[in-house]
Each structure stands twice: as C-alpha cells, then as structure tokens.
Amino acid sequence: MTHFKKWLGLVMGVLATLFVAFTVNQQVVHAEKVTYSVAPIYPENQTDKNLGYYDLGVKPGQKEEVSVVVQNTGKKDLEVDVAPNTAITNQNGVIDYSQSDPKYDKTLKYPFTKLMSPAQRLKVPAESSRTATFTLNAPKATFEGTILGGFYVSQVKQDQVEQALDHKKGTSLTNRYSYILGVKLTQSDQTVKPHLRLNRIKPGLLNGHTAILSNIQNTKANSVGEMQVDAKIRRAGQSKVLYHSKQTDLQMAPNSNFDYGIDLKNQPLKAGRYNIKIKVNSNKGQWLLSKDF
Predict the structure, then answer these.
(1) Which residues form a coiled coil (predicted)?
(2) Cα–Cα distances in Å, from 192 out to 114, 119, 224, 258?
C-alpha cells in the first residue's frame, strides 16, 4: 500500500509524497498561478478515507457513483475536463494516467476507461465548486489483482486555443495545468505477483540518439515500483559488454509494457548476433531477462 501511495504522488515524473492530487505543467513559457484544485468524494466502499486517492473494493457486476470535486479559487469562471483514464506505463518507465486513448497491453482484460462513464466538461464559476459524478460498472466476472486508473483533470482555456490557432508558427505557447486522482479497484485481499517478460528487441531513437529498444511487459494485474534496471548488450556467446544502461526508480502499471532504451551513442550496431541481459530489482520481486537478437 505504501508503494502505491508513492506512485500516486508523482509530480513531473519524479517521486514525491502522498497527495490529494498531483499537477503536471505540460507547456511552460511563463509563470501562472493555479486557480483550481480537485478532491475526491469517497463512496462507502473506500477502504481508507485518509489515502488521498480512491481505493475501492468492488463486487462482480457492482454499479456505483464516483464523484470528483473541482474547486475554483480564482476570480474568473473556468472550464475543466474530467476524464477517467486507464493507467499505463509510458516510455519513461513511469505509471501514466494522462493518456485518453493509449494502446493497451494485450494482457489487460479490464481497462479502467471501459468501466467508467465518459469524460465530462465542467463549468466552474469563480470562487465556487462543481462536482463531476461518474458511473462505475465493475466487471461482471470475478477478477484477480488490481484495476488501476485515474481521473485526469485539465483546465480548458479558450483564449489559449484561439491564440494557438492564430500563431501557426508554433512560437506562442502557454501554461496548462493538470491534476490526477488515482483509482484502484480490487475484489479481494489476495495478492497477485507481477511477472515481467522480455518481448521484441528493435532499433530506435532515445533522446535523439540511436538506441536499442527492449520491450518489457508486466503480464499480471499488479503494479511494480522502485525498479532498478541494469541492461547489458554483448555479442552472442561473448562476455565483453558493448553497451550498458542503468536506471532507478522506474515503475510499471498492471498489465502494461514499455520500451526500455539503451543508448548506442549514435554509433551503428554492426551486423551480427547479439544478446541482451536485463536485471530488474523492485519492491515486488527480481527478474533476469535475456534474449538474443
């Protein structure tokens, strides 16, 4: 439970402390005061009302309402979009709740978005609040582990939209702040152990550099956190390490995948057979992944 709190307290891709919601500054040119906030309204099946996110125990076929409060602390009216999104793992190795139409992993049986009513746009008068209420339809069949998602709340600014249309050269960008309220659905206290596997290996780009991209997949309905990833590429059958990458504090959502990149420093990979070994240590277990390519 403690590790889940850390993930939901993510700010700008960096682990932080537990929150009611976290902000992401998506496009920045000048400082701008955030004039709204969000908070959960916990239903009766909330496991702990001090968490700062929804942790709901649900029964097969259960139908209930889940509400989000948006508080406008500014002097002007505002509009916000409140969207229920499925948690995925983005290409930075971070659990991401911001994508409205991601490509789901083939092992994900119940995307959170499919269980909730559609996104809503709220008009919130100055110095007041409004509530967005969604209908949750839990899976009719029993499920193991965790279904993970969140409400992604972003401000709609018509003046910014018009400004962007008027500046086709793309030189005028403005701030757009967002919040996330995480949602965790479970049916039992039984723990499902994550399982990581190594899928396709392919060439690609990493921060503009040539790289080898290794697709790491979590096939089970449980998140993985505090991941330390150590990857090494060698010629097949040889011991000399040609390329090495090490990262810490990575995360994976339940039933998700991402491409872990090893920078080739803009050097071409010569023709031949290679082997990659990836060691993963985490709060949920250890894995040694290996594949020839």
Answers:
(1) none
(2) 22, 30, 11, 20
- Assess whether 74 and 175 both reside in one domain: yes
What pLDDT is recorded for position 175?
58
Based on the domain organization, do 220 and 285 belong to the same domain? yes
Flag the least confident range among 29-38, 173-182, 233-242: 29-38
Rounded to two decimals, what is the model's pTM?
0.84
What order do you get walking across the sheet with 36-41 strand by strand? 36-41, 63-72, 128-137
User: According to the model, what pLDDT value does residue 10 have?
Assistant: 34
Would 191 be classed as within a structural domain? no
168, 186, 204 - which closes a domain:
186
Tokens of 228: 């330390």
Question: What's the domain range around 274?
Answer: 196-292
Q: Which tokens hold the place of 146? A: 């965790």
At which of 126, 157, 186 does a domain end?
186
Reported as a single tens digit per residue, the pLDDT across 55-73 is 999 999 999 999 999 999 9
Q: How many residues does the chain have?
A: 293
